[in-house]
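Exercise 3.2. Students should predict the tertiary structure of the chain below and write it as structure tokens, then compare their answer with the key that follows.

Predict this chain's 3D structure.
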Amino acid sequence: MLTGKKVLVLGLARSGKAAVALLLNLHASITVNEYAPREKIDCYDEYVSQGIEMITGGHPDDLFERDFDFVVKNPGINYHKPFILRLKERGIPVYTEIELAYQVAKKQNYIAITGTNGKTTTVTLIEQILKDASHHTCLAGNVGIPYSKCVLEDHLLDNSDYDVVLEMSNFQLLDIEKFHPHIASIINLTPDHLDYMASLDEYYASKTHIYMNQNEDDYYLQNIDDLTLKQYLDRYPPQGQCLTFSLENEADCMLKDHAIYFKNQHIIDLNEIKIVGKHNLQNMMIAIMVTYLSGVSIEQIHDTLARFTGVEHRIEFVKEINGVKYYNDSKATNTDAAIIALKAFDKPVILLMGGFEKGLDLSEMASYHDHIQSLICFGAAKDRFAQDMHHDNTYVVDNMEAAIHKAHEIAQQGDIVLLSPSTSSFDEFSGYEQRGRVFKEIVNCL
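Answer key:
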């Protein structure tokens, strides 16, 4: 299919390696450019033995004057970089691995979910409902599983009609060309990634790429409670059939009589739901609509919803110690996610907040004082967070471990200790997953 096509893969990591494996399978002529030096690349010798050209230790200017049929870019490489802009100016297509995999795979039922918060819980729940209903399903994208890997492992170059559930970050949406989901939704829009995007407007607009190739045979699921999202939908109108969901108003999927209804059909009573927080009701509504449109019965949807206990690192209950409950919300890498977590509890919490400094405005977060019993700030952003939160009962410590021990010291029976850092983890950890795992390890040793 791609025999002899000249392809440049920029950046390895998980997505780059998955793209290389798929391109090798399709007999492309591959050049890899990885910023890390040769000795840090574990697959260097293997790739060279497979005929792959390896250019490491930087991004040499002359590389970007060469002719390639297309480029596969790691989504973490900022698209404002001069060498990326040079490729685009020369008319060379720049894709992420999802676009590559989409273009080479057979026809599938694509379900694409984006938004600032709630993506992983939503796609995990969608996948679980589909699997429980015995659908052929694969989950990929921003959950940490490259779609190119799924295409190879599930033989999607030959098999069709899988339910492909994709969590998509704005990084992955920026370089969409042909990607066309049958069902798409933007859960919400709140400020994030201001260290990567040129502006907040650009960040919000990038999310609308998720439905840009849809047509009247497709479905767009609209959160009518989010007024910021409405502005962008008005500016960039979806072309698919629009179905609505709401926690507050009448909609296709809505709350009524202490239950969730879809198209006036009772789905599940609220007292049957095990995960906490109104935001998770919103996530469930999307999962209900997606799976119903994908052919799952209401009975099957109900049964999976009633069993679902949540996703790791998303307001995840860890342990109760002497009457104190500890929750891991390490995925809260922005203030809106942390606010959602605070609002999920019916009493003020001991909040552990801090990590990498990415310049997020804390003014809205600071307005939730009545949801915070004590504030413990840690990590690189600790001093600014402590200053800008203006909380009367604030402690400042060096790192997350010290924050956990301080919380253990001050907590009394009946208290809730919540790790909801409000920022990324790169000052101390490789990512939110490692931060969450370490949190749980320390708590379980208290």
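Discussion points: The first strand starts at residue 6 and ends at 10. DSSP finds 16 helices and 20 strands in the chain.
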